[in-house]
Amino acid sequence: MASISWCCLFCLFLAVFVAQVGFCSSSKVYVVYMGGKSGDDPDDVLSQNHHMLASVHGGSVEQAQASHLYSYRHGFEGFAAKLTDEQASQIAKMPGVVSVFPNLKRKLHTTHSWDFMGLVGEETMEIPGHSTKNQVNVIIGFIDTGIWPESPSFSDADMPPVPPRWRGKCQLGEAFNASSCNRKVIGARYYMSGYEAEEDSSRIMSFRSPRDSSGHGSHTASIAAGRYVTNMNYKGLAAGGARGGAPMARIAVYKTCWESGCYDVDLLAAFDDAIRDGVHILSVSLGPDAPQGDYFNDAISIGSFHAASRGVLVVASVGNAGTRGSATNLAPWMMTVGASSMDRDFASDIVLGNATKFMGESLSLSEMNASARIIYASEAHAGYFTPYQSSYCLDGSLNVTKARGKVLVCRHAESSSESKLAKSKIVKEAGGVGMVLIDEADKDVAIPFAIPSAVVGREMGRKILSYINNTRKPMSKISRAKTVLGSQPAPRIASFSSKGPNSLTPEILKPDVAAPGLNILAAWSPADGKMQFNILSGTSMSCPHITGVATLIKAVHPSWSPSAIKSAIMTTATILDKRDKPIRVDPEGRMANAFDYGSGFVDPKRVLDPGLVYDAHSVDYKAFLCSIGYDEKSLRLVTRDNSTCDQTFTAASSLNYPSITIPNLKDSFSVTRTVTNVGRARSVYKAVVSNPAGINVTVVPKQLIFNRYGQKIKFTVNFKVAAPSKGYAFGFLTWRSADARVTSPLVVRAAPSPMGLMR
């Protein structure tokens, strides 16, 4: 009998043990977002968070504390904790909770550019007619992979003391001490609780500190605010003096991104601290995968909403998916940036045996001493690989005997995530002496290949293959990469830059603007490749260009709101390239439109004198939320005040945004905008309209007469379907005075008629 009892007791213990193990293993990290700051003492907020957690842990305070990762209690409220799905569901129903969502991982959207945009000066980046010396009082926060503080780009030589408003800190950690911060890098923090909760932190290769091991964070910070470096170059390429957009501005670092990405709970902690620390601008070169989820289930949207309400402009990258409708970071309260080329390329010559010369993108610094046979990689297929598979130079797909001593022409699939650099290593291991890589997506990104190599597009690749197929003994020689200045047309919208329309709220145009993001030289982390500088491409690089421009505006106009700064950049942008021709899009060369570049390519020479701005504040964003379906109860959860939907818009298009998008025009529709005079006190502006195809646009009044600085005037834009059309049509509205041109893109799609035909 006793043996049976012991057996039952053991089975019961085992069942409880297994249940507990199952319970623990099914828990995961969630963000519990509770809206704006309530005014409670931060210590009380922590206690309240523990109390909420204890209620779903059977009253156990110990289990509540063990599950807790972060409390957000400065810029907004909420917490992060390890929860089961059931516990998360219970908390989502509690009073005061806006949303509960899993700890998702975000991806990084990964010089001469300032000369190309027309800014000159080694240290001050002066714009004619203005002094930008006040940039020493502007603090930029970078949410990224950290910083390499010893880089010459982050020297504090001749910089004044740290601004008194700064409330941040220099967090110590691995290879990072108090002296790692200075009068340039005035603050540095790191966040890894969200990362450690999701991944094996014992395998982490990065420094457990704000120090940058990947280079991405140092790169973006130096683009926006790097000091002048007399001889910045990449292994001899692109040599010359270089600096960031606001070289005397201060830098604050918030390291949230590790080897595999950036987790939501860490990102929110960084936003929370940055708002309290006193940054003026936040630069965020990362984002979610498309399609993006609801604004208040997205860490960057949440963080930027509360940052904007505290007067902090958030600049973010649009993403690198490159396809229509793939834009991310879609909220109207942040500024979203697409990527373009410059008039500088890095290229290698491909000389064929018939003396025909092609130029392909490359950062390869090795060179072929003599010409060699060139073959299509499919001719060197090995083992079980088909010729088609081998044409993509997959690992193990090449026959060493057939590839040895030859130049191989390989393909790179349009949707492939394979490394182009890895393909050159595969060719090298097979004995190849060079590689021509046909990029089916025609993304003009230069790569530091392992052997003499160059990337060409489809058309150039077709010509090279035609030479091979029609020549008895085809030969080729590939030169080392060189810097090519003056390449035209420029700028072009990069093929990888994500495009509109906005998949979440089509009435808000995204991206907002475009800036250089292709083959950008900037500071780097010597921990990766033992280099001080590197060349990268991505909307990660275009984002800090706009951050730098915004910093100069903040320096000259310190009282301007985030939306006023954004408006100044958008309404002064250009849709023409350096030859005054319409900007085009890689790879096909089609004419670009607002879904590619938003308002256009940034023009820093004009941003300080926009004439008029489209301003917006928290009350406007609340009305916007009401217009997209938020009721007063859910709105108050976000804002933590007595906000109502009394002032809501008839449609989201009515937000006072610098662009106007009507995604479903049924016969006619009107929107009202308000402009604020920030130019000459007494001035007159006249409306000039370029109608979208098939749409008649009228503006009332047609003339705006201002008598003082800061005066606001409303006007109405009326849209009416005039002719049947299919898809979106594009035009613009410009307010023109003697001194200024204030331009807004007009993006309109007519709704289908009841019979299914276009009106």
From TrEMBL:
Annotated Peptidase S8/S53 domain residues: 137-579
Localization in the cell: Secreted, Extracellular space, Apoplast
A cellular-component GO term for this protein: apoplast
GO BP terms, alphabetized: proteolysis; response to symbiotic bacterium; response to symbiotic fungus
Signal peptide: 1-26
Domain Subtilisin-like protease fibronectin type-III: 655-748
Keyword annotations: Apoplast, Hydrolase, Protease, Secreted, Serine protease, Signal
Domain Inhibitor I9 span(s) in chain numbering: 29-109
Gene3D superfamilies in the cross-refs: 2.60.40.2310, 3.50.30.30, Peptidase S8 propeptide/proteinase inhibitor I9 (3.30.70.80), Peptidase S8/S53 domain (3.40.50.200)
GO MF annotations in UniProt: serine-type endopeptidase activity
Catalytic-site annotation from UniProt: 144, 216, 540
Pfam families: fn3_6 (PF17766), Inhibitor_I9 (PF05922), Peptidase_S8 (PF00082)
PANTHER family, sorted: PROPROTEIN CONVERTASE SUBTILISIN/KEXIN
Function in brief: Required for arbuscular mycorrhiza (AM) development during AM symbiosis with AM fungi (e.g. Glomeromycota intraradices).
Membership in a protein family: Belongs to the peptidase S8 family.
Protein's name according to its UniProt entry: Uncharacterized protein
